[in-house]
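Predict both folds.
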Amino acid sequence: MPTIEVDGLAINYDVPGEGEPLLLIPYTSADHACYAFQLPAYTEHFSCNAIDLPGSGESDKPAGPYSTERYAEQVAAFPGAIGVERAHVAGTSLGGAVVMHLAARHPRRVRSLSLHSAWHVSDSYLKAVVEQWRTLASALPTVADVVVAGIFPWCFTPELYVERPELFETLVGFGRSRPAQPVHAFVAQIDADVAHDATGALGEIDVPTLITFARATSSARRASPSRSGAARRERAGGLRPPVARRAARGSRDLQPRDARFPTPCRR
């Protein structure tokens, strides 16, 4: 897989598919492979630039601090580094938090925006959940163990655990097969999650935006209509809805809690 230098760091990425460029930003602890369920649909229409954020996958893993704002600046430099002027941009969870800042600060880089299980500001509930992961990281042998024990229960429904244990074990094996994330980088990403605040950025987002969340997610409490920012200006000009729906159908049996494998937005 290719790497490119951005902000003095080696960034690893994959480029499957052909068509207009689509930049895919992963979630906490994950590398570019977290989009494996969506790629079969996306690659029919897009050249998918799926990256490993600094601190994850095979990209460099500097010491902290990390922040969603700094990540946004690094992601903003990526398209130009590979010869792409503008791209459709999609982010899941932490990736969605990052690309809010990206779209607000660098609108000329973003053709459309897709936010999957994203949040605009970390409240006390989210902080309490994420801080559990920090505690587990100090007690378990590897970050992969933290993901399986602490993050997966927030991603998948009880039905998946009980009724499809073979699929769950496949997902566990897939997660453990990915490049190991060092604890310092995982904790630095947790710091970025906890500190995230894009309240001031929302009103500056003026590109076609698609927002999705899973029907069984705790983040559905945030899904009431918004009268400001990106939600107010949501338009059907981003990733075409049929493409988004097809990508979601590829993983609908997982019935995720946290849209790390996004399902269609229901209004």
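Second protein follows, with its predicted structure tokens after the sequence.
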Amino acid sequence: MQPRPRQSRLVNRKASNNRNTAGKKAVKMQGRITIRKSWRNAAIAATGSLFLCLAPALLAQVSGYGEKQMGQTNDKPPSLLDGVGIAQRLNQQLPLNLTFTDETGQQVPLSNYFGKRPAILALVYYRCPMLCSEELNGLTSALEMVKYVPGKDFNIIIISIDPTEGTDLAAAKKREYLKRYGHPESANGWHFMTGTQANIDAITQAVGFKYVKLKVPGSDLMQFAHASAIQIVTPEGKVAQYYLGVEYSPKDLLLGLNEASSNRIGSPVDNILTYCYHYDPETNKHSLIVARVVQAGGGLTVLLLGGFMLVMFRRDSHHDDETNDANDDTPTSGTGKKVNG
């Protein structure tokens, strides 16, 4: 039988094309492996750099603001602050007959803000250099994500614990936080109050807000060592819920307002975040106790990043092994099956 040259040429051409295709796939796969290895090396270098940057912070001692001395620091508050804290007095009736001065200079009894809707109560002082602003910032940020409207669904009552503060400071604070909130139409729901020492004592005792007065060296001004908390109050004027710290969950605030609007009383919360800051009268500085939490968070970040990189490396290594096995099974020019015509 005579051979069929044309068919042989077609078969040989097809085999050659298959070999070229296999070669191109191998080159492309090798390129991917090279890129993956480069990425892996870069990730290792980035992780190492991150660890080197975070290590000093993770291992460092937490010092007071501006403190340079060496040695162990003490996160325990000074003895003068033993009287500072939040005693959660749920279901406590507020003395609604108390009269405070609002930001317009009007004398207003607390009862004017109750009866129809719940309220958020915050005890601060307007000249506070740090903690009070953080508390009000956190409250405002959370309220931006709450569907209820101040003045329509609830009231916000801010009372200064400093009897020397007046209407001008209260009005300035209202303008500041109303602008920050971004809804000027809700102005009738924000109430920034000042009052006499007797009325301040009555409201703080009812809420369980314990603070200590501290004289600023070289000044006639007083500062106040205090904890940070806001309270949800029912339309009847009873304390329904406490939220501690300087940041508040919008979901929790919404739930608290819902329950309080039906005069339901919540449950006590953990006091672990009560002392976000403490004031050291011996050095006239504020120190962040929460810095320890930040350190722990940094360590956790490094661990999570390291675990993620390990998983990725193992997956890439497994993928490389499968690729090599696939390349070993790819036919080459010397092992193809011969087709005869």
